[in-house]
Amino acid sequence: MDTLLSLLHGFTVAFEPAKLLFCLIGVFLGTAVGVLPGIGPALTVALLLPVTFKLDPGGSLIMFAGIYYGGMYGGSTTAILLNAPGESASLATALEGSKMAKAGRGGPALATSAIGSFVAGLIATIGLAFLAPWLVEVAVKFGPWDYFALMIVAFVTVSATFGDSPLRGLTSLFLGIALGLIGIDKLTGQARLTFGVPELLNGVEVTTLAVGLFAVGEAFYVASKRFRDPEEIIPIKGSLWMTKEDWKRSWAPWLRGTAFGFPIGALPAGGAEVPTFLSYSTEKKLCKYPGEFGKGAIEGVAGPEAANNASAAGTLVPLLTLGLPTSATAAIMLAGFQQYGLNPGPLLFAEKPDLVWGLIASLFIANVMLVILNLPLVGLWVRLLAIPQPWLYAGILVFATMGTLAVNGSPVELTMLFAFGFIGYLMRRYDYPVAPMVVGLILGPMAEAQLRRALQISLGDPMILLENPISATLLGIAFIALVAPFVMKGLNRFKASED
Amino acid sequence: MLTSFLKRGAITAVAFAALSTAAFAQVNELKIMAPAAPGGGWDGTARSMQQALTGAGIVKSVQVNNVTGAGGTIGLAQLIGAKGQGDQLMVNGFVMVGAILLNKSPVNLSQTTPIARLTAEAEVIVVPTESPLKTAKDLAEKLKADPAKVTWAGGSAGGTDHILAALFAQAVGADAKKINYIPFSGGGEALAAMLGGRVTAGVSGYGEFEGQIKAGKLRVLAVSSGKRLENAPDAPTLKEQGIDLELLNWRSVVAPPGLSAEQTKALIDTVEKMVKSKEWQEILKARGWDDSYLAGAEFDSFLKNEIERVSKVMHEVGLVK
Amino acid sequence: MTNDIRAQGADKPALIVGVLLLVVAFLVGYDAAQQTIVATYGLGPTAMPYVVACGLVILGFSHFVVAFRGGLPKPEAADGKALLWIAAGLVCLIGCIALGGGFVIAIALLFACTARGMGRRAFAVDLAIGFVLGLAIFLAFAKLLTLILPSGPLERLFL
């Protein structure tokens, strides 16, 4: 009851016209900048931090909230329309989303992602308001072994969903993991696979690989078969909006995505990638039209997008209750808090209830504004695809390189982008799935670091993975997920031979 | 557009004139390089300098550019390449000293023209409140008994936190090579490991742990500065507890090599004016940075000293061979 | 072009991928073998590379098997000219940035080359479009976000 009253009070703070204006500005700026691939919500907030310097604390934090959520909406727009996932969390969205866009269903894809984000944001923000203190107790209990087990679950479930050739899927995945080895080893500070090139010390940027394989690779591929088999992009086919059928197929993935995103996002090292992958593979398993996956199934957009947004709200749980910045954006928001001498943490709720509840209330408002802002834009965005193909793809390449240039414009980085683009083309040509490579690059280093931390704490005893209930359970799930398909196949064969 | 074009040209011309004669100790145009991606700590310092320098009207135009990679050593190499250019500064800090060694960088800080140290932050060694360790001495005893059993949580390998842990082990007579230091990505994760009771002790900048310390979830065993901190007067220093160790995570600015005495002086004057400005002081307060201005020859010898100390400990820990 | 190789019994692309995988595996393993610094506790920095190298070796040999059993999916012939145009656009971009030619010219070249590769025959017009686009992006980044994209002589006029 207390929480509810505080929240209502928060709304009275956030509903001041000036605050609403800040929120609107934030949402708008966030969307505009978030659309650029490679410039995610974290960088957007960092760059706009000086702008908010002159506002009062409440106003500027509310603007942050708008920028944060706006940046994520923008990211999914690029992923769907241009097949350029500008941040690792929108990778899963790009998989089905871009296929939908090419088939003239960009409208419903953008709509399901906007509404899914809204639903997920709403539920997760409610979760933030009511469950935060309890959830955070559980979250800090997660040790490195538990994270490692979680990564393994993600690995196993995701690799089960890629393509029809396990050999080609695994090849792509392993090459991604190998790419993840490049750079400074997090635990000992040693350079691995850098061959004396200093630019490689920072490792392969996920966005460089994703944009290279997806956007640049696609451009090569489409150009290469222009004469024989010209690709047809249909801006709009059927309804621009979601049909009744689309709604029916979207609502459950939204909820499931939220269920993955919010708790994992609240884990200090959970992140947004793992829940989006888990959501994607779950939807693929549960989908009533499995044949559509890979050709543009709406469930594959609805679920991961919801997971992505819910995890964003999840990261606010440790930030507000413990002062733990668990993502790049959260770290920047922490800097924002500190610029007003505020220290998020256990005392913040007690000391500055106006501010905290005002912020939470403005998250609700930012969400509503984003839907209102984005749904009318859907029609406009989709028309981008009506641009003549040469200009469209030229524009996509400009867009794709721009993000790389802004963040790290070294010739080495650009050469990598080019090389990944060409590899992406070759992989498409010989029907290797490209997504597992990016998944390997994201999950590989995380899993390695967590495993090594676990073994460092246990002084090398691997039993630590099985002695802890959470990690043991997760590893059990991973094992079942790995073995179940083979057992099922065996049973079927057995039955068949009986007949 | 044409007028702006002419204006730019005029300013550039003036700047060139100023540089070529180097008669007045005045800098009209300044480029500040942040050798890291936008959004990071060094980038924050560079952009704050830009804000203060233009805000206080000390320099007409300040440009910040980011050169990403390899713990800042790629930016460093670029700065060293810009020999003799008196309109450039690069932000750097304690972390870069270690990164140069760790990355086997072909260039190093002693090749630059040191300008000034700007800010510094004290490090703290903390334990969860439930921990039986009450003082730095207790930690030292435990460390001497079995270094493997003392797990340290902190930032990246070879960073400030790691070096403090190693120096601590050395100072108390434990085997620095045997410390069980676990690098976490970002302060948040290390903090979570502390709160979850996964590790024995944590090392980080004071600011990062402040909230938890004030809320009583973490206990400070020691601060690494020479004096007690203003906002944490109860936390004892290492020296008070008989451990001869002092370490600050500082940030500074350096300039390209090969500058004339006038050029160097002009840059130092500019930075000094900025440090004294109301604008800079406000930024320091807002960001929670401590002023630790130190310029010229004093900064030069301070820097040399730090390089020597870090290099020694990194060899001893086995981070560098 | 891949079709005539089928006659010899082995699928050439699959063999090449297999060899490449072994090369990558060798590089990863060799690099790990060169590491001098080990972890004091738990797993060192070489454990993961060795696991990855082993996996790549297995995948490489699996490709050899596949090469003799049907091979990889047979692709259609590709339009090499189109590929070259886009590649040229990217090379121009990298060269222009590396040599300090600046963002705007680099983007103009990339835009025009890609459009040419996708079948347009108005290089000069596209160059102009790319130029305006690049300039607009550069100014938006510089003025609104205070992010300076790679600058050449041209960009400096606007800063």
UniProtKB/TrEMBL annotation, chain A:
<dbReference type="InterPro" id="IPR002823">
    <property type="entry name" value="DUF112_TM"/>
</dbReference>
<feature type="transmembrane region" description="Helical">
    <location>
        <begin position="61"/>
        <end position="82"/>
    </location>
</feature>
<feature type="transmembrane region" description="Helical">
    <location>
        <begin position="355"/>
        <end position="379"/>
    </location>
</feature>
<feature type="transmembrane region" description="Helical">
    <location>
        <begin position="391"/>
        <end position="410"/>
    </location>
</feature>
<feature type="transmembrane region" description="Helical">
    <location>
        <begin position="470"/>
        <end position="488"/>
    </location>
</feature>
<dbReference type="Pfam" id="PF01970">
    <property type="entry name" value="TctA"/>
</dbReference>
<feature type="transmembrane region" description="Helical">
    <location>
        <begin position="430"/>
        <end position="449"/>
    </location>
</feature>
<protein>
    <submittedName>
        <fullName>Tripartite tricarboxylate transporter permease</fullName>
    </submittedName>
</protein>
<feature type="transmembrane region" description="Helical">
    <location>
        <begin position="109"/>
        <end position="135"/>
    </location>
</feature>
<keyword id="KW-0812">Transmembrane</keyword>
<keyword id="KW-0472">Membrane</keyword>
<keyword id="KW-1133">Transmembrane helix</keyword>
<feature type="transmembrane region" description="Helical">
    <location>
        <begin position="170"/>
        <end position="188"/>
    </location>
</feature>
<feature type="transmembrane region" description="Helical">
    <location>
        <begin position="147"/>
        <end position="163"/>
    </location>
</feature>
<feature type="transmembrane region" description="Helical">
    <location>
        <begin position="200"/>
        <end position="223"/>
    </location>
</feature>
From TrEMBL, chain B:
<dbReference type="Pfam" id="PF03401">
    <property type="entry name" value="TctC"/>
</dbReference>
<keyword id="KW-0732">Signal</keyword>
<dbReference type="InterPro" id="IPR005064">
    <property type="entry name" value="BUG"/>
</dbReference>
<feature type="signal peptide">
    <location>
        <begin position="1"/>
        <end position="25"/>
    </location>
</feature>
<protein>
    <submittedName>
        <fullName>Bug family tripartite tricarboxylate transporter substrate binding protein</fullName>
    </submittedName>
</protein>
<dbReference type="InterPro" id="IPR042100">
    <property type="entry name" value="Bug_dom1"/>
</dbReference>
<comment type="similarity">
    <text>Belongs to the UPF0065 (bug) family.</text>
</comment>
From TrEMBL, chain C:
<feature type="transmembrane region" description="Helical">
    <location>
        <begin position="50"/>
        <end position="70"/>
    </location>
</feature>
<feature type="transmembrane region" description="Helical">
    <location>
        <begin position="82"/>
        <end position="111"/>
    </location>
</feature>
<dbReference type="Pfam" id="PF07331">
    <property type="entry name" value="TctB"/>
</dbReference>
<feature type="domain" description="DUF1468">
    <location>
        <begin position="16"/>
        <end position="150"/>
    </location>
</feature>
<protein>
    <submittedName>
        <fullName>Tripartite tricarboxylate transporter TctB family protein</fullName>
    </submittedName>
</protein>
<keyword id="KW-0472">Membrane</keyword>
<keyword id="KW-0812">Transmembrane</keyword>
<dbReference type="InterPro" id="IPR009936">
    <property type="entry name" value="DUF1468"/>
</dbReference>
<feature type="transmembrane region" description="Helical">
    <location>
        <begin position="12"/>
        <end position="30"/>
    </location>
</feature>
<keyword id="KW-1133">Transmembrane helix</keyword>
<feature type="transmembrane region" description="Helical">
    <location>
        <begin position="123"/>
        <end position="149"/>
    </location>
</feature>
